[in-house]
Amino acid sequence: MAAKEVDVVVIGMGPGGEDVAGRLATAGLDVVAVEARLVGGECPYYACIPTKMMVRGADALGEARRVPELAGSATVRPDFTPVADRIRDEATTGWDDTAAVQRFEKTGGRLVRGRGRITAPGEVTVTGGAQPRTFHARRGIVLNPGTEPVVPPVEGLAGTPYWTNREAVAAREAPDSLLVLGAGPVGLEFTQVFARFGSAVTLVDNGERVLGPAEPEASAVLERVLRAEGVDVRTGTAVRRVSHDGDLFRVEFDGGEPVRVRRLLVATGRRTDLAELGVGAVGLDENARTIPVDGRLRAADGVWAIGDVTGHGAFTHVSVHQAPIAAADLLGTDGPAADYRAVPSVTFTDPEVGMVGLTESAALERGFRVRTGIAQLPATPRGFIHGPGNDGLVKVVADADRDVLVGATAVAPGGGEVLGALSVAVHAEVPLAVLRQQIWAYPTFHRAISAALEDLGTG
Ligand SMILES: Cc1cc2nc3c(=O)[nH]c(=O)nc-3n(C[C@H](O)[C@H](O)[C@H](O)COP(=O)(O)OP(=O)(O)OC[C@H]3O[C@@H](n4cnc5c(N)ncnc54)[C@H](O)[C@@H]3O)c2cc1C
Ligand SMILES: NC(=O)c1ccc[n+]([C@@H]2O[C@H](COP(=O)([O-])OP(=O)(O)OC[C@H]3O[C@@H](n4cnc5c(N)ncnc54)[C@H](O)[C@@H]3O)[C@@H](O)[C@H]2O)c1
Known about the structure:
By secondary structure, the chain is of the alpha/beta class. The protein folds into 3 domains: 4-40 and 97-147 and 272-331, FAD/NAD(P)-binding domain (3-Layer(bba) Sandwich); 157-268, 3-Layer(bba) Sandwich (FAD/NAD(P)-binding domain); 344-456, FAD/NAD-linked reductase, C-terminal dimerisation domain (Enolase-like, domain 1), CATH 3.30.390.30. Helices cover 32% and strands 25% of the residues. It is built from 16 helices and 22 strands. 47% of the residues are buried. Bound molecules: flavin-adenine dinucleotide and nicotinamide-adenine-dinucleotide (NAD). Residues 11-16, 34-38, 41-43, 47-48, 51-52, 115-116, 144-147, 165, 186, 277, 307-309, 314-317, 319 line the site of flavin-adenine dinucleotide.
């Protein structure tokens, strides 16, 4: 069958793909969007939004348990049902993307269900429907395939009914026991949620600390908090073998006693299959982990890539930062290029871990003359007032030659909100002298930034 001529084919309708496809269709281009699962991608159905609804419930429990120290008594009987109902009914509408499809189609774009693959320069073939369909994209192809969970090659694991984030967000109840494999953002958020809802959680990571890429001081706070909440945190621990007897998992380690758990959640990172996407047809490395892009998200002649696959931070805000830039480039409009100096991220544990720019070690690796300052939250006025639940810190990383911040971390209740001011400082390269003159409202958590700046010293 002859290829159908269109202007643009977008493969993958994650947050960025949805944005770029909608913009181009609104601008009058003939746009075909190819989606294998749900329009909107991972974030609304399996990731950001449902997990943050879980966190909201878990945080309410966490605060309620602090009542005896602060305000009398409260009886807390966790029930996961309201969380599961909100996820099913409010967040995902039963994992149905009808509203998102209608939103896209209103822009004039066309959705094709199935898996898209580049089969030649400018050509995309979609399989998975009744018969393969081929499109020829006159102007370009946009790749927004996102990521899949990595399942590590642990003996026995593949044949067991393990969970990934996709099954975990569909849980109707908190399991009585759970082993979480991987202590990155995914593993940490689920660990604290299920622990607060009553699961006995074992958190296992083969790295030396939780949230490995974060500042070590931030990892230490999280480990301490999780242990205090009853989580069995095992870092530097490798899983040797996994089996399942139809009811329970048995997990064996390289050393130490095996554990038996009801559920096992794999949270050991993400991967993209570039060979399956056919990027070799446009001269890109099919075995790479990411697709390199320039400032305008160009990956090859007539090909743009956005989102997790570009390796600039696997976050929705990166995907939607890139999407309008790629759309503008496709439309031949000028505008600023993508800028990743101040990519923020928040791990939504309690306390939240907000990070922006470079950590101390990353700044040293880049060759900066680094100075750091740190303020422990319990030692600040607001931390002292807050009492229970005040674990945290603010750490700032400065380039001593330019006297600006190149990175910062805020571990605090609402640490992601504290991060806002730090993100501005890093993004706009606000001189340290200006930051020091700023009046920071008393007694806020974000005022800890001024204490961290004081600790940084001058000169
Ligand atoms: C548990 C969890 C929690 C997270 N929480 C947050 C958070 O709080 N904040 C945050 O910013 N980020 C969070 N993230 C990351 C966030 O989900 C992603 O960065 C975000 O979804 C952006 O991804 P994307 O645009 O690259 O594509 P995705 O959202 O991954 O979507 C890609 C889409 O492409 C489709 N696709 C792939 N290949 C093909 C193909 N060949 N043909 C057709 N369709 C295809 C997929 O089906 C998918 O729908 C979280 C991730 C996880 C796993
Ligand atoms: N709040 C947020 O913004 C948010 C939340 C969740 C995820 N995300 C995004 O999704 C990405 C993926 O998150 P993730 O947590 O799945 O991955 P990750 O790569 O960040 O962390 C995976 C963890 O698993 C460990 N690990 C790997 N193999 C292991 C093994 N065999 N045994 C034990 N431990 C092992 C690693 O040491 C690491 O700590 C993140 O980088 C982030 O960008 C963002």
